[in-house]
């Protein structure tokens, strides 16, 4: 396409990123080549560093550069609260809001009969183990307000039983809305107005 | 943001690509980390290779991995025709159409009083030199159908004088349209129906 194999390979790889199609991948690669010193070399270094070190936390599913992530090893965040999110992007959205001081549990999706995603695929067994290991008093469900998100919330409620306080983000999360699209203020309000399930 | 400096650096760099904002950069980086083996490492290698080798052709402005690009060194393309485009993305669009067998000249933009872009910034002097050096019989203007594109076409027509056949893509390029958005068939039709200026 560019009559150069190295450049074509880079375009093909970039086009596989979410949000970039072939055309925007070509534009991005041309931009990178034009800004070679400012952007291309730093990006090469940065990607190589992340490729060498990034991994999922074995405890919570967050991404970081150690087997156990910074939040799970931070003793000041062992306040007895675990916030359950679908995706690492949702964890980041919660952190940007800056109001939650506990730890997280990243499911990696929601239960889905359609896509044959069951509890084992979602780190739900690991969540149940953590309740005891980390003396958790409250589990806050911060799942997307979708059908699959609500199904997952009900399933987790059944598994936890009555011994534990289970809450969910409430006020402010629009029906059908996805957490990562919300502004920080809306997330703050939803956390403060959380209700017992 | 991700509570990890390496990952945050990568998100910041990705967010500076055209077409990606902060949110899509975060999504892209999470996707890269999840597909570490399949995507992140190959991308790191590919970017490093392009960063080390990519450069602009000193003759025509195309990008490649040598001082003079593959098209400029291909003797079968020395057919006396030079196609003038604004951008490398437009050159790629012409190549995808597969109907033009000559060489290119990439201006790197259009004349613009507003942005103070004059002929020197656009490789127009180099174009005039090439006419003699490469015994060019026809210059085909494949500029975007915008005001600045047409101003640039008129300026080039004045510079070339009467000794050379000067044509432009005609039928099929919509008013205000940009070449890189067109399908291959439209580009083919526009090239075949080109008219003498
Ligand atoms: Zn963790
Ligand atoms: Zn060239």
TrEMBL record, chains A, B:
SUPFAM superfamilies named among the record's database cross-references: Recombination protein RecR
Name this protein carries in UniProt: Recombination protein RecR
Matching HAMAP family: RecR
Lineage: Bacteria, Pseudomonadati, Pseudomonadota, Alphaproteobacteria, Rhodobacterales
Positions of C4-type zinc fingers: 57-72
SMART domains in alphabetical order: TOPRIM
Domain Toprim residues, every copy: 80-174
Matches recorded under PROSITE patterns: TOPRIM
Key words of the record: DNA damage, DNA recombination, DNA repair, Metal-binding, Zinc, Zinc-finger
UniProt organism field: Arenibacterium halophilum
Protein family according to the UniProt entry: Belongs to the RecR family.
UniProt function note: May play a role in DNA repair. It seems to be involved in an RecBC-independent recombinational process of DNA repair. It may act with RecF and RecO.
InterPro entries for this protein: DNA_Rcmb_RecR (IPR000093), Rcmb_RecR (IPR023627), Rcmb_RecR_Znf (IPR015967), TOPRIM_dom (IPR006171), TOPRIM_RecR (IPR034137)
């Amino acid at each position: 396409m560019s009559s150069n194999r190295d450049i074509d390979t880079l375009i093909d790889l970039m086009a596989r990123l979410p949000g970039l199609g072939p055309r925007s991948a070509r534009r991005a690669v041309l931009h990178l080549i034009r800004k070679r010193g400012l952007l291309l070399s730093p990006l090469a270094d940065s990607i190589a560093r992340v490729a060498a070190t990034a991994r999922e936390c074995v405890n919570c599913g967050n991404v970081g550069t150690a087997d156990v992530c910074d939040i799970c090893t931070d003793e000041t965040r062992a306040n007895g609260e675990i916030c359950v999110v679908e995706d690492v992007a949702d964890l980041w959205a919660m952190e940007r809001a800056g109001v939650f001081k506990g730890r997280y549990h990243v499911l990696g999706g929601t239960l889905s009969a359609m896509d044959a995603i069951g509890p084992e695929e979602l780190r739900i067994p690991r969540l149940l183990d953590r309740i005891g290991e980390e003396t958790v008093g409250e589990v806050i469900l911060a799942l997307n307000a979708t059908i699959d998100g609500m199904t997952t919330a009900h399933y987790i409620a059944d598994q936890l039983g009555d011994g534990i306080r289970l809450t969910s983000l409430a006020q402010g999360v629009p029906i059908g809305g996805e957490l990562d699209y919300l502004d920080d203020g809306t997330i703050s309000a939803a956390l403060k107005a959380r209700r017992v399930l």
